[in-house]
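Weekly modeling sync, notes
Attendees: S.R. (lead), two postdocs, one rotation student

Agenda item 3: backlog of single-chain predictions. S.R. asked that every request posted to the team notebook include the full sequence so nobody has to chase files. The rotation student volunteered to paste the first one in as an example of the format we agreed on. Action items at the bottom.

Example entry:
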Amino acid sequence: MKTSYYFSNRIREPGLNLVAVSNTFPRHLPWLKDARQYRKLCPGWSLVKNFKHHNLSWQNYTEIYQEDVLDKLDPEKVYHDLGEDSVILCWEKPGKLCHRRLIAAWFYDHLRIRVNEL
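Predicted structure, as returned to the notebook:
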């Protein structure tokens, strides 16, 4: 399992198990035509909007995402649903604050599985 973002050149090769974990994703991009969305890991719209409009700090965002999303899920089931070969995708470029890295940390904390950026 890896993480990446929608416009990365590294996800353009055919046959990758691409999984969107954002509320929307650019389905029109040819390399995302076979991507699937895993809604259970998508942050709520209000959480996204409040963070993007600077109404929430990253720490607050992280706490709310943890409570509202991750704490309600079974990490083993989610890992199985996604597949060990999956590439978890969202909008943010590497180095930006992003919930896909929270998901990666969650997998490590619960399953001791390292999920690195592709």
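Discussion: group reviewed the output briefly. The mean pLDDT is 93.
Action items: rotation student to repeat for the remaining queue; S.R. to check formatting next week.
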